[in-house]
Records
---
Amino acid sequence: MDKSEASASFQIEPISPGQGYAARLFFEVTSPFRVMVNLVDILDIRNVACHVGATSKRKALQQASRLLSESVNSGSQNQSPDVPAREQQPDDDSEELLNEVDILDALIERERLGSTALGSGVAVPHGHLQELQTPIAALMTLQNGVDFDAPDDADVDIIFALLVPQDSNDDHLAILSQVASRFDNADITEALRKCGPEELNRALDIFCSVKQVE
């Protein structure tokens, strides 16, 4: 398979084996890797929320965990990986795989290794879960920014939360690099901040589109 190159002013570095990656601001790098997952395939409209009320980092992570839990338990894990998440229908017979507490624990465990804030009001909390079959994600903007121990000390008001299967290190890195590239575009972040609570489809399209935001 051909390898794709991604260039962004974020450096994606492994923290330790099996513990995920840190995205560090202000470093211009090019990381060749196989692109195995597209953002449109893992981000479901049900997992997008705009102008969410949260007063702390933990509460923001709780809200993100709730969105991710809804995706895990919707049955999307049992559906074809070739169908984008936004086009899949829930499986009414699916059993609950994980609750939001399990997901929150995974995100907090990663945060203990270092903040996942990228700077410029953006954070990408992420973690591994053994029970998952495919990566899932949630996109959320906040009414007011919260302290996330960011490298530039800016409060975070845009969050992309990611969960991947335990051994999906290649997918993990590829997704984080795509996300970092999106958030390196000020047009995208500003357009996301302007999306109201009812403009979820617009927020999803803005983030997943490869076209220039107008």
---
Amino acid sequence: MEETPPVPARRPQRLGGPGAALTILVDELEAARSELLSDVGRRIAAAAEPFVAPMTGGRYTGLVVEEDLSDVAVLAPGREEPIPWRDLSRGTQDQVYFALRLGLIHLIYGDTPPPLLLDDPFLTFDDRRAAAAMALLRRRAEQGQQVILLTYSPRYEEPWSAAVIHLTP
């Protein structure tokens, strides 16, 4: 005679129809998404922070990124309140945006970053900002990250480049 397996103390309830399972699935996925994104803004800001001061010559030292990634503000020495993104000049916005991209790369890849392939990323930068960005890229290259910069501008040649390849049509 075969033994009958024990009956679970609580039997699963039947779902109220085919749509009920989908509703539960959507609710669970939304809860997982919210949990995953709950601190992504803070994590991106923290990862980008080491790039902000060098990019801005110390004028700004940190970032505040909204949880839903809808807004960014910068932190400045001697100011209590963050400065909203919309109040920054176009050049500073681009500096901050570049720092955020470098921070995001660090979050994704950690200590083994992929090569950076940049196509005229500093068009809105004045010479001072461009020099700060190039110094940051030079440090990244010295730390082992491959940096490839495509540009039509000769302002990046010296003293920033280790090798320049001139392409002519």
